[in-house]
Amino acid sequence: MMANARLYSAGQVQALDQSTIAQGVPGFTLMMQAGRAALDEIVRRWPAARRLCILCGGGNNGGDGYVVAALARRQGLEVQLLALRAPDQLQGEAGEAVRFARESGVIIENWHQDVEIPVDTDVIVDALLGTGTRGEIRAPFDDAIACINRSSAPVVALDIPSGLNADTGALLGETVEAVLTVTFIARKFGLYTGQAPDVTGEIVLAPLAVAESTLSESDYVGELLEAARLQGTLPRRRPTTHKGHCGHLLVVGGQPGFGGSTIMSAETAARLGAGLVSLATASVHIPPALTRCPEMMVHEARNGLDLESLVDKATAVLIGPGLGQGAWGQGLMQTVMNAAGPRLVDADGLHLLAAGYAGERRDDWILTPHPGEAAMLLDCSVAEVQADRYQAALNLHRRYGGVIVLKGAGTLVIGGEGPEACFISPFSNPGMASGGMGDVLGGMIASLLVQGLSPLEAAASGVLIHGLAADDAAREHGERGLLASDLACYARRRANPGR
Questions:
Q1: In CATH, what class is 3-221?
Q2: Which residues hold (6S)-NADPHX (predicted)?
Q3: pTM above the 0.90 mark?
Q4: Non-local CB neighbours of 55 within 8 Å, separated by 6+ positions
């Protein structure tokens, strides 16, 4: 893992900043580097831009904005700087930035409620609030943020969009909607999950003068999944490999009328390389399953007794899609729960788990809830889950063990207390807002599990492939109308890196 793929809390980034200063790098040098990195990104993306509007608060985030203003003015750009904190009250590096801006010819205007950003502004720079913001956004910042969002000009956020919680990805109120976020020193955890994807736009990391060794030796929260990860984690196959070497997955579910979910799970698992895939489902779904994917072995599951021999033969079991929560689903769930071996529990299986096995804790299973299911498992509200997705996933792991995949934008994978067991996927798109996406994700993760990956690695790689495949499909055909069953062929390509 590269150190720049690590995700940090706001406090950990502040410690990195202080450590770098203690090593002899002046704080104002870091601020100058931040301002230069941001302006370079602005000029690269909008080379024709001539007029910037920069809104500055207090502290170092505001100081970064003053530096951007000074450098832009020195490059001959027109700059409107609106100050929400009296510039003469800024101290330390931020005070130096104010002096630098004035020396560079920047005229500082005080913000007031009647201010409107001129229509001829080419780019707006948000330097209002930094990563330390935790409470509700209050006046005058809420008005300034609303003013920014009313403008049609593109917005660049410095370090983090103002109004976004840097640790959780929750919105604290009115939040700047940026098209580009230039984040400094290290990646903040909250930029990649929760509601953050709605407001960050593209995220660019500017590490400044922080040494790689300082990053690699520091505390962090988790890791951002990267496409290159697949080169080193997916198992290589020898020339003599046969189907018995590639695992046998049993997919259980599909009460009458709900067979599509299990069929998609099973077919996707086969496409990702499981050696054998069996499907235990209601008899009515056997013909369509074999028509859709004749390579799978389909069995009628009348009750839990029909499952016993199938579970014994399987490397792992995926249970839940279309299972239902009635007597039929309960019987199948009981057989799977009584058996040994790894399993993935999803959808209705999670509801049955909460209802009948609340005290069950295992190290070899993977639970894949969406926020609503996570709230049900934790006996809390969806809003509470979304307010701090990391804590919700960690609480699920502490209660149930194993690996937790908390689905949604910025899908989280947590398999332990340490940062080496926490992953976020930055890959997804709004086209994934369609039925069955969770079912194919379960099939991908379970397929990798039976092929020999650990539960944590199977979950992380499966989530990564799922997001990449969806982005590939959307890039080729568009987001609207993207179906879960479209992902299998794209996922297969991603599961064969190097081709």
A1: alpha beta
A2: 60-64, 130-136, 159, 322, 370, 439
A3: yes
A4: 65, 81, 82, 84, 111, 124, 125, 126, 127, 128, 144, 148
